[in-house]
Amino acid sequence: MSKQAGSTSLWAATASAPASPNLPGDAEIEVCVIGAGIAGLTTALLLAREGRRVMVLEAMEVGAGETGRTTAHFFPPDERYFQIEKKFGKKGASLVAQSYSAAIGMVENLIAVEGIDCEFTRLNGYLFAPVREKWTDIDREYRAARKAGVPVQLLERAPGVAFDTGPALLFRDQAQFHPLKYLNGLAAALARHGGLLYTGTRASAIRREGQRQVIETQFGRVRAQSVVVATNTPFHERVTMHTKQAAYRTYVIGMRIPKGSVPAILMWDTAEPYHYVRLESSGGAADEDILVVGGADHKVGQDGHPQHRYAELEAWTMARFPSSRGVAYRWSGEVMEPSDGLPYLGRDPSGDPDVYLITGDSGNGMTHCTAGAMLVRDLVQGRDNAWAALYDPARTPARGLGEFVREQVNTLSRYTQWLSPGEVDSAAEIPPGEGAIVREGLRRLAVYRDDDGGLHALSSACTHLGCSVAWNSAEKSWDCPCHGSRFDTDGEVLHGPASHALAPATLEHPLVPPGGTGVGRGRRLE
Predict the structure, then answer these.
(1) What is the pLDDT of residues 255-278, one digit of tens each?
(2) Whole-prediction pTM value?
(3) CB neighbours (10 Å) of residue 447?
């Protein structure tokens, strides 16, 4: 089973995934949910609580995807309310506010009813404008949020912190939790309600056969009435959804700070690049808290050596929280940015009424995924949902046409990499622990040198739509700059939409330097 070999999140360092078996063979079920992150497990539990026979398939382990690499906060949408109002009208903005409130309430309810211990806390959130040029955004957001029904306050600055934030908006009753502890609780609750969970089982295709959906895995076929694709980005279709959203890496550091020196609040700003902040007690010494700070986003596969982004976050944090004692954790995650700012939650746009999607999480994955689970539950159960039209995956990108065009131009430009020379003249130039693209005639190879000097060569063609992958030195992975697929150094899939490994290759001219151990083929972990 493939695992992320790069950074480790604070959550993964302080909680472990529950043990679950592989799919034992062919199976029949009412609802098959693919993905054991917050979207998948919440959907499965909500349906199981309504008496549905539910099975969850997970390619790695519970929380091994993006839920385990989030900052696990619940606060207002990254797409500001004034922007949502402009694109979707006052009613659309009001529905977004309702769905956000309902999602936090659902999480709180599940924690209480199912007895989940995950450090859930309600707390205040503050949006602030650190530069004068953005002060007008704060005023616009204040007016739009109030019109949407959000109880928001306008303040001169966020309270309780040493630095002057500038004008800030107070959003009460936001929330945070430990995401992996929450997932463990959802998995346990699912089992109590009769749901099945199989990990290490990758779904590679979905197709309709008569009145049933057939899900292909390496261990057998699952036949189901309905399928929910909750894999951060859809893997089962090649183009439609991938033109309407773009994949970004976001970076996080956990700084040690004296306990009690920073209040338990959420903060996020209007800067470019933006920043978001929360406090966490897990993972620190008895006299310390961990200040979790994120941001510094970029398109997946379009920064081969992103370590400088951690340094930028650290410098930003030290300038505003000078009591920080150093970095305890560094990690990154992947977010899918929809072209019009709202997630895609509901029926698959292919037209098959029994396939559902939860994707386009943007920077609000915990909220969007929970709202998506609630919406999909209602659709599967044949109930109306007030948010269905707003979040419909079949909607056109017309409301975000400018962003849609920019992202498509960026994506298409990446295919020109096939005409470019390699990043190094030969594999001999690649240092241990690093990777690079090597050209051999018409072939572009993704070559990694392990710490012992052995070379691992793979085709650089992403198995989704053939874009040439790029090395990510921070995560030790091969990342697709077109649609966000990621692969480990053996070529195994870490993140879709690709559902198949990179093809192994053999170097014809490795030119192994003294001390090297020779040429290795791209191998796969079983």
Answers:
(1) 999 999 999 999 999 988 889 999
(2) 0.92
(3) 30
